[in-house]
Amino acid sequence: MPSIRTRATARGVQSPLPPPGRFRGAVAVGLVATALLAAGTTPALASGPAARVTATAGVAAPSWAYRTVSGYLPSEEAPLEATATSDDGSVVLYQARVDGGSDASLLLRDTRAGTTTLVDHAHGLATTADQEAETFALSGDGSTVAFTSRAGDLLGTDVPNGADVYVTDAHGGAVRAVAHPGVPDRDVREVSLSADGSRLAMVVGHAEGVSVLVVAVATGATLYRYDGDYATRSVRLSGDGRTVVYGATADGTSALQVVDVASGTVVASLPEWSGDGPQVDRTGTRVVYRAGEGPVPPGGWFGPARFLVWDRTHPADAGTEVLAPVGLRPTGPVVSADGSRLLLTAAPSDGGSIPSAAYAVDLPGGATQLVAGGDPDGGATGTGAYAGSLSADGSAVTLWLDGSIVSATRSSTSAGAPTWPGGASLSATPRSSTAVQLDWPAAAGDLKGYEVSVDGTVVATVAPDKRSTTVTAPDATAPHTYAVTAVSTSGARGTALSADARALAPLAVTRGAAGTLHLAFPLPAGTTGITGLRVLRAPGGQQADHPAVDPASYAKVADLPATATSYDDTGLAALTYYGYRVDALHADGSTSPLSESTVERTDLPDAVPVLVSGVGSTSATVTWPPAPAGTPLTAWRVERQDSGGAWATVASLSDASRTSYADTALTPGTAYAWRVSAVLGAGWPVRSWATATAATTRGRASRASRSTRRGSWAGAPCSSAGTSSSAPPTSPG
């Protein structure tokens, strides 16, 4: 992958950062431009001036769907223009200012996993290093990040002495320095990675001059070295790691060198190179470079940029010229790994007010298409775009668009298909572990309805007057792609609006001991970029069977390690509903929803036997445990059963703080049983609080009492109100 040199400031960084999904839409434009003939049809030329191809390209009008890549961390403020993209377009590396800092952080967005990871973090911390990365590169397979930095806290043992080069696993692994022995007092200025991340090319400044090195990442072994003067720069490594391209000065003349790494042989020397960074494809077959500017047109400020494509099949040729779109002054370019597409950023050559736009040029055939930007009114293509990087086949473009990093993918539409308004996007909002809500704007034109798909499979059709639906998520273990396509009455299909979303993980909440709720939340498989978990709770009131949880009232209860799968919330009010959810913590301190919300209530303590004490001939004292704080208690109900009698209420105590009652209307020598119930408010039923305990008063019973005791005993140890046991009470010792 080519290296990226970042800028201190980005054009348009004052633009507000839109929410994810702001720039998903469709654009169908065409322009007439001069372009490159297909490789293999270019005539063989002698070394010297480049051949100019002036064939007029056909008008191309594809559609591009936009998906915002940046802005998923709430603390992101201003992404820079520079980006790097994996071969399949799913992993994007870019820089953005975070938490109001003046330096930019290096962030990696994995669109499939739905995670954003801080790459250049301080050693052992989840914060950005003390200086920003100066250049960076991403391997084609998305596994490895390389960057140069002057920071002194990346390894914990750094002693800054110029910029050094570091590599790390793309998903938040440990940062380590790349060994490059034999170059003391070094200052690494540029880096470029092979597609598998195993080889690294760099430009290194030192006391004796500037060197180009190609090293093995794992060992630091030098595979190729060139020692040049201070004009040596602009290194690029082919995807297979076998070809290195760089600018050097020989005999007072600057030229772009194309070198075979294994043999050190200079395959080609291209003197028309103007000094801007070149690009090389995966196999080192094509090299694209800038060759200065043409004549300034009448009334213009700048001449048209000239780009040459050198082909290994004609190594002696300077290359074939790709002319910029008429009236535009492009910069760049970027070439796809398979060599099939160029990406250019172009602004008006006359210095007019039309903002910059990104164009894709298909090398086999030469068709040129507007990808994004160039619309002063901020229509479907956005206002200002600056080219960044391409997927291996050129089908996905990652670029800066109106204050966000955006991935644009090429699609097609049928003739007569409905169209989306400018800036249209699909919102995919997880609602539970099984449901995702989709919302979209109204399409214009002949409209029959909308097709809704999940991972490319149509799951529903929606009436044309609807703008929202909820679909079943396949699972909550990974992100899935949701899409909505507008369809006409004739069956013509428009460009799909799409968004990725991961359904919320299930959250199980169960009642434990009194005042305790147990939470279980297994982390979805494959979840990356999470540094911890946050448990949040919201009160739901005490009204029986009617919890009232306000989603805005969730507050942090605890922060847990990222590996935690459960949590016990204790000390809660009795008979009270609580809502819970679990959020993921990220390296920059931001959070994102991880689990669904679940509501559960606490319970009362289990009933225990009532304590009977102070038993005399005509009285006894009944004692029971106090109610927990917050119990919606309105009264204590004390019930007594005498020998042969039914349960009867002997006291109703409105003082909730009472825990005893003296029963003084007893008969000597008589067996009794007592129990206590809690009379509750807020619609709760009466609950057994202290189960029946029997005792016999002192003294001799009267004849009438003894006669009654010979009859049946209806006495009652009981576990709940309204039930009793047939076992008679036992007299105390």
Automatic annotation (TrEMBL):
Stretch list, region Disordered: 692-733
Coiled-coil positions: none
Compositional bias segments (type: Low complexity): 710-733
UniProt superkingdom: Bacteria
Residue intervals of the Fibronectin type-III domain: 605-700
SUPFAM superfamilies the UniProt entry points to: DPP6 N-terminal domain-like (SSF82171), Fibronectin type III (SSF49265)
The name this protein goes by in its record: WD40 repeat protein
Origin species: Motilibacter rhizosphaerae
